[in-house]
Each structure stands twice: as structure tokens, then as C-alpha cells.
Amino acid sequence: MIHPPRPFVGLPRLAALLLSIVCVVSARAQEVRASAAASAERVAPGDRFVIAVVLDHPPGLHSWPSADQDVLPENIAEFAIRTEVALVEPPAWLTPGPVQWPEPEPGKVPNPEGEGALTVPLYEGRAVALIPVRVGEGAPAGAAEFVVRAIYQSCNESVCFPPEEPEFRITVTIDPAAPAFDASSLTGDFAGFKGVWGATSVAGGGDQGSQESAQSDASNGDIDFNAFGVGFSLNPSSPAGFVQLMLVAALAGFLLNLMPCVLPMIPLKILGLTHHASSKRQALAYGIIMCVGVVAFWLAIGLAMSFISGFDAVSSLFRVWWFTLAIGAAIVAMGVGNLGLFTVNPPKWVYLINPRQDSAHGNFLFGVMTAVLATPCTAPFMATVIGWATQQSSIVILSTFLAVGLGMALPYLVLALNPKWVEKVPRSGPASELLKQVMAMLIIAAGLYFVGAGVIALVYEFPYIGPNLHLWAIALVAAAAGHHLTHTTFRLTKSAGKRAAFTILGIVIAAGGIGLAAKFTLIEKKIHDSRLASGEGAGHDAGLWRSYSDASFDAARAEGKVVVAEFTAAWCVSCKFLEASVLSTDPVVQRLSDERVVSFKVDLTSSRAEGWTRLRSLGVNGIPFLAVYAPGREEPVFTSNAYTVGQMTGAIDEALAVKEAQGLATGRPAPGTGAG
What we know:
The chain has helices at 11-29, 74-77, 239-255, 265-276, 280-307, 321-339, 360-374, 382-389, 394-417, 419-423, 430-461, 469-492, 496-533, 550-558, 573-583, 586-592, 611-617, 645-665; strands at residues 33-38, 42-43, 48-56, 84-88, 94-96, 105-110, 117-122, 126-135, 142-151, 167-174, 223-227, 230-234, 541-542, 545-547, 562-568, 597-603, 625-629, 638-640. It has 18 helices and 18 strands. Helix 3 (239-255) crosses helix 9 (394-417), helix 5 (280-307) packs antiparallel against helix 9 (394-417) and helix 12 runs antiparallel to helix 13 (496-533). The longest helix is centred in the C-terminal third of the chain and has 38 residues, at 496-533. Helices cover 44% and strands 15% of the residues. Strand 11 (223-227) and strand 12 (230-234) form a beta hairpin. The N and C termini lie far apart (106 Å). It is α+β, with helices and mostly antiparallel strands. A 6-stranded mixed β-sheet has the order 13-14-16-15-17-18.
């Protein structure tokens, strides 16, 4: 039987499809609209102005907060395209500062791990990002045009649209007769500007930075160097000045060899050349190859800073706990190998982390490991050089890191070019072996430092793991035992039955240990999450130093306190040195004990630490770093990567004087003085 055609049988499905398309298109039509404007039409050379990038969100749409704010949960941050704003290749005389981002508002998004919705911070309504800009004294008079780019993604509660990347052309007139910048006169979208300009050259050297953050003066193009009271200025705008700056970068790299993290490597290299080089020519070749490894590492860091978004300091390497743990384990393995504890030839892959010095690739890897050891240490003037370079072109960044690498490699190159010096070291005997073992022990100590820093960062990010670390240690031993049982069985017998049986037994042993640790960790996580839900688990105070949070920091500022913020991390060797030699001294402790002073330890061991946003707001990406704030002033009265006791006490005294002056000016005692 032939049925007649039924032309309307698909109409409901077609209607539903069309309706869904209309809904999506109509939602897309109500898109987030972006715009940009400058706070002034005319700007004098040496002055400042502000750029506002505005995102207007229609009702029901949002965009994602900037990565600088680090407020999204991990399961959302994995896929969210974060909002960015920046100047596109600005002229050399135009220096942007740290972006002041709008405050996110709570909004709902789909839960990627299940049903329902999550409430997370979002940009909604009219969100304004403010970019402070400095104009150099050398800015040419007349109209100047530059480009501002915004990157953002529009979403509603169920759909996210392709990201937008609009560019806006901003024109200002450089006029020496233009009125001076006045923050109090800002209105409209600019009214919320907090006046945080930051340093004109960002101290992005991170852990290797050991001097005052780069305070280059935009008015004359000078870069000021200051480490422990030793200061000078350079102007890289001329060829001679640029060469001088590269020489300073090379000096900073050379000084890395004198740091406790790296110093043991020089004797080990001398011993390696004496033991493994069969001729002067081979010793020279091995030494040069090691130098190439040192330089290659620093060039790799320069490439990362040039082309990887978010990689803004060497310390970026140590913000991830597993990387720090892996580096620590590799260094320990290298030290153990140099102790001569490998009684049998290990597999070839072991030499990737314990490089032999009797081959070209082994010497290259030895150079790389030597440079890696320098990353958590400090070198005078390095943060200023690297901080300036990170704001320049990729060629300048690579040139700067090349100079650092060459400076660090110089001692090893000198040894390779002067084999007579190496020949003075005995090739064998008790003295030679003793020196090698002592240096290897120091290398192991450095490796354990990295391992400890990695564990601290792990526990910082996942606090519930801490109480079960001993179980995870047992699990690792059980896993090693299971692997050893299986591996040895395969070496001793070809019987398929025995191999299968002992393999199963090995898996059971390994899985049992790991399963036990995982089970108790999950139990601890549930307890930890319930405490957080009930409001417990807040940071604690340790002596004079309070644990940092944005809320406690802002509260201390609002109370009119003098605020001291030390930005530190478990992996930052320089931070530990400054804490021991400066911050724990009696004159500093006496001032920090004053009831008018509040001091915060801003722990940045984890990449998720709340204090990273505060550090970046100061125009700085790396540590060590310290800031002293006076009441009523937006910008710190003192910032430094390397400071003395006198500088520290002087900064606190200056901030207290500002506080007292404010009390006299208002006709009442300053808060916290105890008067009245």
C-alpha cells in the first residue's frame, strides 16, 4: 500500500530548530560593545594621562575577568577567555603602567562538572579598565596616534560566543603648553582611577632580581640602578647607553656564579674537566659546550618572555609546584651521581637529569642545570635590567638575556681557555674525591631546597594534602617496590606464568599504597571544604607578620595604619636572605612592633596566591619585593627588591611622619598614637 506524502511531518522539528537559531542570533545581536578614550586631548611632554577601555554588557551577557585578578575557579578558568587590554606597539616615549581592572560582580555560569549553575565573579554592566600612561620628555610635539587592543569573550548563562579583538585608535596632541595632569579632576569613566602608575620599567627579573625595582624616569629615559645603597643611572636610548646596559646585564649574569645556589658548580666543572677530558683540545670543547648550555637556557627564558602570554618573570617557572618538585629531584639526582653512589650503570634516560661530563650532550645539560640553579637566587642589578627589557621589543629582550647568559658563562669559558689552571687540580686521589663529594653534597642541599619549596607550594594549593604527606611518601615507596618486583622478575625469568603473577603482585602493592593515600586525602578534602563553607580556615598571623588577604590589607589602609608588605615565596632564596639580614634585625623589629604599623607577609609560593594581583598593581612581576605605604597616599613611599636596615627603618619613619602630619593637619591625633 502506497502512502501519500506527508509534507508537514517535520514541521515541529524544523520550527524548533529555527526557534533555537533565532534565539542564538538575537542573543548575539545584543553583544558586548567596547570603546576606548583618553582622559585628555592635549598632554605635555613628561606628563601623564589615562586611557579608559569600556565594555558595555547588555542585560544577560557577561565577559570573563582578567587573568591578573585570578578570581575564577580552576574548572572555569581552564576554558574562559580572559579579558585583556593593552597598547599595540606604542612609541618608545609612551610607557603604559599596570592596568586597573574593574571589580567583577557575582554572576551565574553553567557548571562544567555537572548540573546546575555556579556563581563566579564576572564583568557585567559597564566595566571600565584604566591604563595609566606616561609621556617621555622626548615626545615629539604634534598629534600622536596609537592603538589600543581589547580581547574579551561575550557569554550568557548557557552560550559563549567567539572572542572579540577590537582595536581602537587614540589620538592625543603633544603640547608643551598643555595643563598638567590632575587626578582629582577626572570624571566619568576615569573617575575611579586610583593613581597606581607603577614603575616605568617593571622589575620583572623575579627571583634573580635583588635590587630596587626598576625606577626608570620616563621624563628623561634614564634607568636607575640601586642595590643595597649602590646606585647609578644609564640611558639606553643611545647606542653607547645600550651597550653599557648590556654590559651591566652581563655583570649581573656573572655575579650569579657567586650566589650560594650556583657556586658549588664551578669546582665540580673543574673536576669534570680534569677527570673526563683526555686532552687540552677536548677540555676546551667540553668547556665551550657547557657555556653554550648556560646561554641556551637564558635565551629560552627570553623567548618565553617574548612570546608566551603570562610568562613575565623567571619566577614564573616556580609558580607551579610540580615544576619546582621536578627540578629539585633532578638536582638531587645530579648531586647523588657526583657523590659516586651509582654502583651500577643507570639507564641512559637517567643522564638527562644527571648529565655525564664525558660527552658533548652531557656538558651541554650540565650547563643548562647550572643556569637552572641560578633562577631562585639573586644577582645585583638584574631585576632592573630584566624589568626594562620586558617592556621592549623581542629583539631587545633576547639581546638582554643573551648578555646575562654570556656573563654567567664567562668563568667556565675562562677555565676552558686556560687549561693550565685546570691542570693544577689533582686528577685523582683523596683530596680530589673529597672536594667532589663536598660540592655534590651542597648540590644535594640545593636540590632539597627546591623539593621543599615544591611541597610547600603543593600544600598551599591543596591544603588537605598536608596531613597525608606521610601516606603519599609511603605510596611512593610502595610504587617503587612494585616496580622493582616486576622489573627484577622479568630479568630473572622468562616464564610467562611467573612474570604475570609477580606483575599482578607488583601492581597490587603499588595500587594499594596509592589508593590508601588517595582515600585519606579525599576524606581530608571533605573536612577542609566543610570548614571553608563554615567560615573557618582563614589565614593566621605569625608574630609581627600577618597573613595577607586583600580584605585585611584594605582594612589596615582604611584604618590609617602604616602598612608594610613583604612579597616572598618558599622558593625565593633572596627573600630568605633579606628576612634574615634585614627584617629580623632589632631596629626593624622595633618599628614593626609599633601599634601604628601593620606588616603583611604576602606569600606567593603558589601561582594562585591572592597577593599576585597586588604585586602586579605595583608594576612588578617578580620577587623579592617590599613596599611601605603611608596613610592617605595611593602609591608606596618606598619600594625595593634589595634593601638595607637603614633604608627599611627610614621608609617606616617617613610613613609615620606622614601619618603624624595628617593628624596635626586635621586638628586631632592621628589614629593609633594613643593621644587624647
